[in-house]
Write a structure and sequence with these properties.
12% of the residues are buried. This protein is mainly α. The protein is rod-shaped.
């Protein structure tokens, strides 16, 4: 993913969770294993997106359960209304 430099808006770096093209990572982080700030920002952004997806899926599952319950209730009501008793 392309991440913009924090100090120069004209500069971008190709960044993954395990690698970055910035000088800090190329000359220090890759040797020590310490993430550069671009990698940290990428991981933070990915974590936020994952949290959004998880919230969406939880809401979607809830809405689907409610819809199934409403359909079942409507079906029971219609059967009851069709009954001669």
């Amino acid at each position: 993913m392309t991440v913009q430099s924090f100090t120069d808006s004209k500069v971008t770096y190709e960044t993954t969770e395990h690698n970055c093209t910035c000088g800090d990572w190329q000359f220090r982080g890759s040797k020590t294993g310490k993430d550069c700030k671009h990698m940290v920002a990428l991981k933070r952004g990915l974590a936020q997106e994952i949290a959004k997806v998880e919230r969406f899926l939880a809401i979607k599952a809830h809405v689907e359960r409610v819809e199934i319950e409403r359909r079942e209730n409507a079906s029971c009501y219609l059967r009851m209304m069709a009954s001669p008793w």
